[in-house]
Amino acid sequence: QTLFSVRVRRYNKMLSSIRRFFKFIHWLYLQYLLNTALYMLEPWERALFSTLLVVIISTAIYSALYKTKQQRQSAWYYPLLEVIQSYYMQFLLASTLYVMEPWERILVLSIFFLIISLVTYSAFIYIPFHIHNILQATTPIITDIFKH
């Protein structure tokens, strides 16, 4: 046997093991699609769902690793955080948002702030024009005053 044939066999064996590994990964992906019933979705829906799942899992891991550590009481901003948290809890109690799940709170508050921002934007854009038209229609023109 030549050195070349030994290397070719090793190379083919390595490629075969890499192919088996990728086939196994593909099989796991198909199992994931089957178990989560994602096989019946469009590819873009699958990508969206999988992205959301990865974000949720990574957020949970981040929270488990970093946010569960005891906060330092000596930080200069800790009293400010306590005041903000107190006001936030009072807001939740007054608006009855405390009975909702955290994701429901975020959804409701996001919709609320979106509506408030749209109303504010439209007020800044459209109200000056309407006030100008109303003032033009209701206030007499100077020449009309002098004619009478």
TrEMBL record:
The keyword Chaperone does not apply. It is a multi-pass membrane protein. InterPro entries: Ser_palmitoyltrfase_ssu-like, SPT_small_subunit. The chain crosses the membrane at residues 21-41, 47-65, 77-100, 106-127. GO terms for cellular component: endoplasmic reticulum membrane; serine palmitoyltransferase complex. Pfam families: SPT_ssu-like (PF11779). It is found in: Endoplasmic reticulum membrane. Keywords: Endoplasmic reticulum, Lipid metabolism, Membrane, Sphingolipid metabolism, Transmembrane, Transmembrane helix. GO terms for molecular function: serine C-palmitoyltransferase activity. GO terms for biological process: ceramide biosynthetic process. Belongs to the SPTSS family. SPTSSA subfamily. This is Serine palmitoyltransferase small subunit A.
